Amino acid sequence: MDANDAPAVRLAGVRLDRGTRTILSGLDLEVPRGSITAVLGPSGSGKSTLLAALTGELVPAAGTVEVLGQPVPRQQRALLALRRSIGVLLQGNGLLTDLTAAENIALPLRTHTRLPRAVIDRLVEMKLHAVGLRAAADAYPRELSGGMARRVALARAIALDPPLMIYDEPLTGLDPIASGVIINLISELNDRLGLTSIIVTHHVHETLPIADRAVVIANGRVVYSGTPGELQASGDLLVQQFLQGKPDGPIAFDSSPRAEAA
Ligand SMILES: Nc1ncnc2c1ncn2[C@@H]1O[C@H](COP(=O)(O)OP(=O)(O)OP(=O)(O)O)[C@@H](O)[C@H]1O
Ligand SMILES: [Mg+2]
């Protein structure tokens, strides 16, 4: 199969450990190109750990992880090249506070390309336009609302035109209106730019409407993988407990203490 025909992400028989603990096992997952996949699951279930395996930050203890048609490389140079193809939006935005919005977005372009200044300026303007923030080019992060700052971070994540976008809790800390803006933007960018998007979130009801596929992880494994529509109808007790947010059920509330050693 040509690398361009391969799914954007493919996991086969993957086990992910942190130290001596197995966080996830038996992972078999395919993310089709062009799709939006919502990865759902309770806190501590291993959603961010799964993302870390896609970016090569965490090497699987077993199985294979392929991203954009190639196994995630171990070799540093090859790994950096792959990472350039993955746009990541992290919960904290990660904007540099002493740079303006435009300068923050220009950063990956300055670091990873040799494009002339004028071209970079034009690209930055286009990315700001893509997130509806052209007027905020010269604002510093402290001058932006939470929703605007998230949009600047989004513009920076797409600066290098990565074919694959990964969002880790993109709605955290935003009010319903700002959440709606971000979720629509994620959907719009995916369609307009022909991206593949993976959204890790516990904001089930906001995210499912734009998702083509849903994956639920709980108790160390994938408990659901399919369409969002069928998810609601799933008879799996773990899935139902998670969707309904019930404290009692097969998902133990304190199953995965974050700091076991502490
Ligand atoms: N760097 C690390 N070292 C050791 N354990 C870790 C590390 N990162 C995560 N873990 C553990 O792995 C488990 C899964 O964590 P992870 O952050 O993937 O969960 P999550 O589903 O993203 O949770 P949340 O919804 O709270 O972000 C947790 O029990 C956590 O304590
Ligand atoms: Mg997480």
From TrEMBL:
<dbReference type="InterPro" id="IPR003439">
    <property type="entry name" value="ABC_transporter-like_ATP-bd"/>
</dbReference>
<feature type="domain" description="ABC transporter">
    <location>
        <begin position="9"/>
        <end position="244"/>
    </location>
</feature>
<dbReference type="GO" id="GO:0005524">
    <property type="term" value="F:ATP binding"/>
</dbReference>
<dbReference type="Pfam" id="PF00005">
    <property type="entry name" value="ABC_tran"/>
</dbReference>
<protein>
    <submittedName>
        <fullName>ATP-binding cassette domain-containing protein</fullName>
    </submittedName>
</protein>
<dbReference type="InterPro" id="IPR017871">
    <property type="entry name" value="ABC_transporter-like_CS"/>
</dbReference>
<keyword id="KW-0547">Nucleotide-binding</keyword>
<dbReference type="GO" id="GO:0016887">
    <property type="term" value="F:ATP hydrolysis activity"/>
</dbReference>
<keyword id="KW-0067">ATP-binding</keyword>
<dbReference type="InterPro" id="IPR027417">
    <property type="entry name" value="P-loop_NTPase"/>
</dbReference>
<dbReference type="InterPro" id="IPR003593">
    <property type="entry name" value="AAA+_ATPase"/>
</dbReference>
<keyword id="KW-0813">Transport</keyword>
